[in-house]
## 1
Amino acid sequence: MQAKKRYLILVSAGTCLFLLLCLGGLPVPASRGGLGRRDGHRPGTHWPRYSEHLQPFVPWDQSESEGFSAPMSPRQKRDANSGLYKGRRCRMDSCFDFSLCEKYGFKVYVYPQQKGDKISESYQSILASIEASRFYTSDPGQACLFVLSLDTLDRDQLSPQYVHNLKAKVQSLSLWNGGRNHLIFNLYSGTWPDYTEDLGFDIGQAMLAKASISTENFRPNFDVSIPLFSKDHPRTGGDRGYLKYNSIPPFRKYVLVFKGKRYLTGIGSDTRNALYHVHNSEDVVLLTTCKHGKDWQKHKDARCDKDNAEYDRYDYKEMLHNSTFCLVPRGRRLGSFRFLEALQAACIPVMLSNGWELPFSEVIDWNTAAVIGDERLLLQIPSTVRSIHQDKILSLRQQTQFLWEAYFSSVEKIVLTTLEIIHDRVLQHVGRSNLMWNSLPGGLFTLPQYSSYLGHFPFHYAPLGIKPNPKFTAVIHAVTPLVSQSQPILKLLVAVAKSQYCAQIIVLWNCDKPLPAKHRWPATPQPVVVIEGESKVMSSRFLPYSSIVTDAVLSLDEDTVLSTTEVDFAFTVWQSFPERIVGYPARSHFWDANKERWGYTSKWTNDYSMVLTGAAFYHRYYNYLYTNYLPASLKSMVDQLSNCEDILMNFLVSAVTKMPPIKVTQKKQYKETMMGQTSRASRWADPDHFAQRQTCMNKFASWFGTMPLVHSQMRLDPVLFKDQVSILRKKYRDIERL
Amino acid sequence: MMCASVKYSSRGPALIPRMKTKHRIYYITLFSVVLLGLIATGMFQFWPHSIESSTEWTLDRRSVHDAPLVKLPVSSPIPERGDLSCRMHTCFDVYRCGYNPKNRIKVYIYPLQRFVDEVGVPISSTGLSREYNDLLSAISDSDFYTDDVTRACLFVPSIDVLNQNSLRIRETAQALAMLPRWDKGMNHLLFNMLPGGPPDYNTALDVPRDRALLAGGGFSTWTYRQGYDVSIPVYSPLSAEVDLPEKQPGPRRFFILSSQTAIHREYRIQLERLKEENGEALLLLDKCSNLSQGVASARKRCYKGQVYDYPQILQESSFCVVLRGARLGQATLSDVLQAGCVPVIMADSYILPFSEVLDWKRASVVIPEEKLPEMYTILKSIPHRQVEEMQRQARWFWDAYFRSMKAIGLTTLQIINDRIYPYAARTYEQWNNPPVVKWSSVNSPLFLPLIPPRSPGFTAVVLTYDRVESLFRVITEISKVPSLAKLLVVWNNQNKSPPEESLWPKVAVPLKVVRTKENKLSNRFFPFDEIETEAVLAIDDDIIMLTSDELQFGYEVWREFPDRLVGYPGRLHLWDHEMGKWKYESEWTNEVSMVLTGAAFYHKYFNHLYTYKMPGDIKNWVDAHMNCEDIAMNFLVANITGKAPIKVTPRKKFKCPECTAIDGLSLDQTHMVERSECINKFASVFGTMPLKVVEHRADPVLYKDDFPEKLKSFPNIGSL
């Protein structure tokens, strides 16, 4: 009986199971087969192969017939567009008058400040930066772009900085012209509770350089998105990034951190309110506080007290410096201060601000320096950042530092970047390429008018896989008349001309006496071009003469003493360091703590930070940069003193490369004057000369906003220099004989 | 379901032994029945299905006329016009894509249907075009494709809207709205190449499409929703018809060529004026008026009765004009790129194809229409080298992104994919660098110009086997170097334990001994966690001749060049013309291309690189041959940075570090032969010779200067 029961139970169980399997098994293939099967037409899972001859999408005659039926003349069409697309649909094509920029180039006019106008510190900085830049013009008739002197930075009605009656004030400007070719800077717009992006006055056809701008309101290639910066942001120079070295592996103590306010209700509150879901108080530390505003207690929710307590346990600075990633969630507005803070701290920003048009997005490829997250996928953020490979982290982190130093570290850089972006649009096909903006040394130091070809710059040889031109052009700066055949300049000319790498020699005749007759110059295998300086000023030795066709320039003083071997060796070294100054006379700078200023020394020291251009190779691009990048104030100072041009060149090159120049071999005495034969006119003999150089150092440092010079403790010698081998085996043996 | 049954049967046998024999038979039969049932079910499920999917590829040739007919009621709803404010975060449902480890979106294609209106007239005059069919097949064959509509992130309708001319706007819109997953067009992608129609020729597809994404050819800045739509090229059918072999960049017969036939009269007059001014440099072609019957007019162009083959003639010019026609997007652009001719694009407000990822500055010249008369001057100002690079770049763009509907379709999907997974997006270099550049270009992973602070110091890693006495001397010597932070001894001898702790020299810095599992040379380059500094000094256990000043100076030089190998003994590679291969040179030469890692500073990153990223079998090869690990390191660093190493300080009489057991010349020679072989082997694995030769070495600024020694930072340099 028992057995039978058991048997029955088992049989029924077995049958049930069998039936279940049969029935339940069926849906499996159905779901795998996909919908195609159900509609009875497409049993395959892939797009079927159609056997018949299908028609082309465009019939042969279509394009031709259409072209000729185009009814409207292209010119009419352009005019129609510019009439049609105004206001929110403004583009350069419809709202910008390019013709204003044609005659005088890209010049920016700043309206004179009216008495009684209240201007915030930040806006003062912006205006001062424009006025100090090479784009500034005080003549509105030459201007291509106009900038208001009315403070438009803070358009939050509740803010004390808010300027009232802006609408009337703007309309009354005689040059306003409906806002055409005007640029309006703005950091804050709208107010509680909706924080719209409206500025509270009609901007007409003006362009906006605005922080926290949303992609919906952003007019591509017309507006410029700028970063939100605090009123303490330095005007010039700015601090360097915090990254001092690349640690391996690149992970830091925390993976992801954030510390900031939480808005309990209203716009932009959702994301920050949800952060606690991801917080794990170990390596993902996302802290919020409710404690802000007057009546936070009224709105506080259940988590506030706990959050506030956790918030106080951590130090923001410590977290910032010890985290691999930093969360940058939107606040009330899309942008937040956290962004620049993270960027400077080499903490890779993780953007969590949907619809924010990132700063300078027109030119900066943010994927190379930040992680762009989606607020909707907040919960995935930790796994996303953890999945990023360490090589990628290494590169993202370095890029944050490059971008920070190139475009964000000072108000001046932010303003210049904004202007250069607009400048690029005006230049059109000559504008900077993506690579110029996103690789060292960055767009501000890469002037596209010099050349549109990357290979003409000293910075991109390796990325392009090319080498600089294997020859050089010597430029000798002549200031004394040619009276005797034993003058140093003639010896120098012969020695340089003997170099196998020399393509040509340019003698820049900056002497008041007339040019010597052609036959007075020695006969050389390479052409000697004598250029008579027009203004005979010091800066003219760095003019980008079109006759310089090689990448390398050998800059020489007329009384420099160099042998052919020395020239050859220095040039081979330069080929390895084409972006630096490579040469003989080394000098150093130091901080004079007593006088609280920079000092200049020509003493023999264990290090150096400058290589003077009396005998140095550098890339011809620096001639262009010197002439076109530096402000007239510094260049005229050099011209008036007839001094310091070499120091200024060193400042410039080090500001670009962030690296020291390179001194080659032992040579210390490279002047006739130093060897006892005094040359009458030599400026080096002048006692004031040295004092002036101290002054120059400090003037230059203040314009750069920082001290760009960097010290080096090494010099480069030929491989077998003074080694105990037969001198016959040495290629540069003459160097040792000197 | 399967799982449950397996569990059941596994529990079964345990019961059996306790039962009577009679019952046992019943149970066995019962289980056999269940088992059989299972097998049968399995067969039923999988057998026919697998046959089906295998035949699909070979036998599934069907006709579009088999597609089901769908009648659109007149009152069928019409989607709203495209919303200009749509962006990925507002109109795109990202939850459908979600997180996935491959970071790849899934794309579903609707099955083909033939839509007709109530009286049976189709919504499109062409139906499924050849090109759209190619596009859908390509997507279907790609990694993006899914046939599971529930897992799809992106939906592609099979309704062909490539050419608006052939569409009935209202009915097409109704058909879109009828798609089962349409949901206000959310996550739907439409491909359109020829938007608008006479007389206005709008620059985006006129079919109302709710929130659908538009991959459009010929967007203007006013219709393009940046970051949402994708600007695509207008496909040129000639791409498939004509095979133009790639032409070497360089000067061409003509400077500027205009080949378009449908140029507005105003522009043609301006072009003709340019031609008058600049003569032979310009070639202005038009369509041929008197071609004999049977000649495809699309393939011929004429100038004053002279007939030219199109598109072949494009290869004869440096620059080719691509002017706007009635539409902004022109198929000519594709032909021009294919010919490796640099396009001169004159179409104001036009959004160039794939401009979201492609850097058109490298492949084209964009000139405002108004500046057409200045075209010649503008183009003449472009440096020759740049023109050549543009020619190469133009052809590469065509090869990679224009050549077929497949290329266009997959590029579009990749762009959308990059937006959804931006942290896994392809880089600028990946999108824009042609293979030639990818090969020859170098982007150092340590690219930031940094001079790290002196304070963290360096970690000395000493590789040793059993020369304890010499090792101790090395340790004592190195410990005098001010910037030494830590000593790490890599004990490579598995048969012998390192000496007791008390026997080791007393040093001021932490000293750590790591015992290795195998006696491998690569152990010295392992990125040990114990190395906490950026700088590593690799040093052999017999390098006792380096002074403290020399080592400290080496560290200072490394700080100025943290991305290079900075070392003491220098070596050179040479090309042996007789043998036709590379040769290793350790003699006193004027040049250096390697520094030996018997004594060299380098960044810890290179340890990581050597251990995990060494190309080919080099790492194993080195371990097997117990030689050339230093050469391999030199190759690796030079290859990734494109820079030469830096040899520091004068040459010393090193106890030949590469010939530890000199018994005579013969052994020395075998050694050199072996090292030469290494160079040849590595060069072939790297596919290139990455080593860079230089003629300089680094010395302290005051080296050998007539200057009080005690005032020099590094007085003791070069003593023997």
## 2
Amino acid sequence: MQALWQDLRYGARMLLKQPGFTLITVAALALGIGANTAIFSAINTLLLRPLPVEDVDRLVVSVTLREGFDPFGSPFLEYAAYRDRSHSFASSGVARQRSFNLIGQGEPERVRGATVMANYLATLGVKPVLGRAFSAEEDQPGGPPVALISYALWQKHFAGKADAIDQSLNLDGRSYNILGVMPPGFDLPGVAEVWIPLQVNIDNLPLTERAATNNEILARLRPGVSLKEADTELKAIAHQLEQEYPDFRRGWGVKVISLRQNLLGDLEGRVRSALFALMAGVGFLLLICCANVANLQLARGIARERELMLRRALGAGRWRLVRQLLTESMLLALLGGMAGLLLANWLLPILAVLNPIRGISLAAFLHNFAIDQRVLVFALCVSLLTGVIFGLLPALKSAGVHELMPRIQQRDQRVGGAASGRRWLKGLIVAEIAIALTLLICGGLMVQSFQRLQHVDLGFTPDNLITMKMVLPASRYSQYRQRVGFADQVLERVRTLPGVASAGMTTNIPLEREIAYDAIFNVEGGPPPNPNNVPITSHRVVSPNYLETLGATLIKGRLINKNDRAETLPIVVVSQEFARQAWPGEDPIGKRVRRVRAGQTFPWMTVVGLVKDVKEDLFNYRINRPVWYVPYAQVENDFPVNLIVRTSVDPTSLVAALRDVIHRVDPDQPVSDIMTMNTILSGVLVTERFGAILMGALAISGLLLASIGLYGVMAYSVSQRTGEIGLRVALGAQPKDVLGLIIGYGMKLTLVGVAVGLVMAWSTTRLLASLLFGLSATDIATFSAISLLLGLVGLFACYFPARSAMRLNPVEALRYE
Amino acid sequence: MVTQSTEASTTNGATPLIRLCGVTKVFLTDEVETHALSGIHLDIRIGEYVSIAGPSGCGKTTLLSILGLLDTPSGGSYSLKGNEVATLSFPERARIRNREIGFIFQSFNLIGDLTVFENVELPLTYRGMAAGERKSFATEALERVGMAHRAKHLPSQLSGGQQQRVAVARALAGNPAILLADEPTGNLDSRNGEAVMTLLGELHKSGATICMVTHDERFAQHADRTVHLFDGRVVEDRVAA
Ligand SMILES: Nc1ncnc2c1ncn2[C@@H]1O[C@H](COP(=O)(O)OP(=O)(O)O)[C@@H](O)[C@H]1O
Ligand SMILES: [Mg+2]
């Protein structure tokens, strides 16, 4: 203990004696540890931290998939099958997101909510903070109109008063009795503020309703059952369903993912991959930092060697010295760790802004990248590990020396012993360059993928578009022509607003997070659709002028106009991909097509227009899904109506005027989700953007650190070789010979580093494959451009030390002897 | 022993190999002027073996640096083979160093990373000589100093005396006009020192021009002319009997 204290004191003194060295070391370590801590906080927040549900890591969600990749809501049919046949779950429940028009609490308001089975909340293990949840009896058909409200809604509309319980809430014109208030921040499913019981006996529903894909199935794994086992079991059950209900289920599969993954909006697991790739990236960065610090230590160690050897000659045990050196490096690492925590604390808000997840649930928890105990422990462990990594090397090197005398008397650094130190320096710098190259290639691939995704042809022009959502309650709009009338009136008035260029309505705003309406088509004259190989399409019911407003490109024929009425010929406008799949190689204009759904027949529609592919579907952004547009007046539906307006001025400046127009058409009609199209777009590529920006930043930091490291080693090497250089000049070396000598040495290291790095990158970039778009994980252009870049940076880093070597005065250089 | 005046030694008709006229060297450090050399007149003829002696700090190394074109005089003139060299450009000076001058230093003679052979070959590579030619020149030089059998060794595997012999071989390899040696025995024990001096003596006998700095009187006697410096001036210049 006493010895440790002495080591500490001596160590602190050594560090204070060389403030420059200490400062540089602490800064380098702070960068590495800070970046690691920040990324770890993101992982902690998104993947590790408990959420306001019971034991979140045992909760899973079953996602219904079409064609193995296209995600849909789940039907009751599946739920009932899992409930009856599966042995994987301790409990399970169903919820369906929906929104309500909340009336009688001031302005009409659109609130998000859910219809849930009592079992759903029980499975989550969430209990109200005030009042009580639904009982199983209340969740029976014909049960009482009861509701649970969110903590936020309670605060907003009931000022957080306890007497909110048993008060009534008017949702869509119906009165509900408030049973309880849910805990703060809890909003599953979706971003629910209101929960009402399902009150349906799902086994008695007609098959078409049981097969409708609009629910979320949540389950808690039975103890000892893994997610993989549950997935296997459910896939088998889904397969049975395909055979039992071929008309409804053929081509439909299932995938079990963790609730966490679902909350991140991350069906493909890209958030996980991106986070792990980044964690590996910051790990690499930390290694570069360690290598830089170890370099400094070694360089200093070589200089200190004589002192250390003298101490040993004076009787200090070998391990005593190792301990001394390790104490020093641990001190440095802890200082670096503390500075790193400060840096992480500063970086976290940036990470939160760059938010990598598409999910919007539990935002209070998942968007809050704070430093907690776990992060602190992580930072401490990383710091200590770092201290060992960069401290052990020089320490062991000095302990491994057995002949003391030559070292103490050593005059010439260039002869004998120092060579092993230089070998380490060289090894470290090669490693640094290799790691930097790997980081740069990963960053380069991710940035390019992101750019390609960003420049994917949307099929429409996103600038100057504003969108908003309305749900017309069936109670007020019982006749379809009333809905059409509402839409027509709103559009007519909106178009006269100053600053509005055009306006339209659709059932789904392109790329929004909302549940999208999809359909299967049947081509006239073709065979009845075989659900196994008919693609799912985006089916949009739109007003005249909608496609013009969006800025879709008409290739052939015409778009929908106001003469397309209920009584005229049913028409449809299709996208290129639709035409390609429905009538490969043929002209689609004049062809007929119709929707199919088991048990229902829809009228034939004549294709009158062909448009360029439009990215309608958020979940299929990377491919072109077939899209068909049908006139709002011709297709009865109870989907939400979404207004989309193209403006000639800043679109956000029109929000009040637009609200006012709708208010004048129907004072009780709430409007929600007012957003510009660019805002919607920015939510599409969140994970990719997060990955690209951070990996890019890591790569650049890595490059900088590695070039500083190379510069340091070269400058050190020149200072060590002063005598040698003087000698060479004395022997007639021209300035260019000296320049070549140093640059050649540096470039040799750089090139070896690049070669090692290429092998490293070649084997690591495959792990990124799922994050990439439009280029392969071994993209030759990226690999060669980055290698070249690193070569040039290496040259640059060597140039200055080389130039100073070239300017050495030989007489003075030789005097160094 | 006969003492001659400096003028006397330059009267022998043919142009001397080296002629210094009133060479001065002033170092400026921290506003302090050090007059390392104050008006040196010195001629060295082809085939001479000159030793420069004097107390530490009297300017011996400075003089040798100027002779070896490692440093420029502050004043006076220096001609080598009849050509004024004080004003040459840096690359030209490097070229002359490489072709006309062979250096032997007190220590730091060899580059630790290079083998004996590569060390000897080094000045030849700066001359742009082809590998085959380099090999024969270097081998011949190593044979002359009796170190050819150690060609593949690293300097650290040799004794101090052996290292210095390799250094002599390197100085010889390019057939320079003059060998400049700055206390070549300073780091050697007397036996090894004696051996190196014998080697220089042999080289002189076979025609080499040598200018050697030493403060060891015994070794100074190997030369056939001794120049004594004191405080940057030549105080004595005598030719051995
Ligand atoms: N680069 C230099 N800067 C300043 N003073 C120098 C420099 N080189 C030599 N001197 C000074 O010049 C004088 C002669 O030095 P030097 O030629 O090395 O002496 P010697 O080799 O005879 O011992 C000394 O006083 C020395 O301090
Ligand atoms: Mg000297």
